[in-house]
Design a protein that fits this description.
It is built from four helices and five strands. 19% of the residues are buried. Helices cover 51% and strands 19% of the residues. α1 packs across α4 and α2 crosses α3. With 105 residues, it is α+β, with helices and mostly antiparallel strands. The N terminus is likely disordered. The chain has one domain: Orthogonal Bundle (Arc Repressor Mutant, subunit A).
Amino acid sequence: MRSFSNDNGSYCCDMRGMLGFLILFLLSKKPMHGQEIAEEIARRKGERPSPGTIYPALKSLREMGFIASDEREGKTIVYTLTERGKNALRISKRRFIRTFLGVFP
């Protein structure tokens, strides 16, 4: 997943794949673990992303500072949105609206 900056230097996730955007959106609602994120994506999209898709995306978002991870109850890792992630989501929502507003009548 690539990142890019806007004019004021804020970073947000690349909108091409939409997975990063969707993960940030879901984590803006509540902290979740990877399985929970995959289940919610499956509920919304109709197909469940594989672990080989979801966990690299989570790793990338964490490395960009958009999400934080917290190990709980042994091996369960819970992801939360950081301030940088909240800013990235805000920028991404604006870009999404600007891109897709006219798509639906």
